[in-house]
Amino acid sequence: MDLLRIEHEDFTLTVESTQFQRMWDKGSRILGREKLTSSYQLGEGVQKVVLVQEEVEREIAQDDAEVPAVFFEQTDYSVWVDFSDPKVTKAWFDSPRKDVNDRFSWKGSKQMLAGFLNYGNEIGRADMPICYTVDGV
């Protein structure tokens, strides 16, 4: 199930998880649905962020304070980044954690960076640093 789509001027990043509904239901029972919220800080070049929940798409803005949560502890998330520019020759995930970076690989023939995230028990703030080379730069 798609959960989050970030449309950037150079790529589209999509996040999905087969475990999401189970984790959402568990969190709702323990904390209450109203407390399962996130906020987003959008990077340069981001044109649109779409949250998909219960098959309903909702566009979110940087100043939206209480957006339904997407990321939960101990949950696997598939992430893929589709690049629109055929001149992209390499892309990588650039987290400070090597173990996170090692879960991503560049598929040049498909112009795609793909991998997975699992924040373990450290779900606090999460960055998704995507780096890429276009025409050698």
Structural class determined from secondary elements: mainly beta
The counted number of beta strands is: 11
For the largest beta-sheet, the strand count, sense and barrel status come to: 7 strands, antiparallel
Low-confidence stretches: none
Overall spatial form? globular
What percent strand? 35-45%
* Total helical segments: 2
Spatially, the strands of the biggest sheet line up as 5-4-1-2-7-10-9
Give the end-to-end Cα distance, rounded to a whole number of Å: 34 Å
Which keywords apply here?
mainly beta
Question: In brief, what are we looking at here?
Answer:
This protein is mainly beta. The protein has two helices and eleven strands; from the N terminus they run ββαββββββαβββ.
Tell me what you see in this structure:
The chain has helices spanning 20-31, 98-101; strands at residues 2-8, 11-16, 37-38, 46-53, 56-60, 67-68, 77-83, 88-93, 104-107, 112-117, 130-134. The model has no long low-confidence stretch (mean pLDDT 89). By secondary structure, it is mainly beta. The protein has a seven-stranded antiparallel sheet, with no helix packed on it. A two-stranded antiparallel sheet has the order 3-6. 18% of the residues are buried. The chain starts with a strand and ends with a strand.
How are the SSEs ordered, and which strands pair?
Elements: E1 2-8, E2 11-16, H1 20-31, E3 37-38, E4 46-53, E5 56-60, E6 67-68, E7 77-83, E8 88-93, H2 98-101, E9 104-107, E10 112-117, E11 130-134
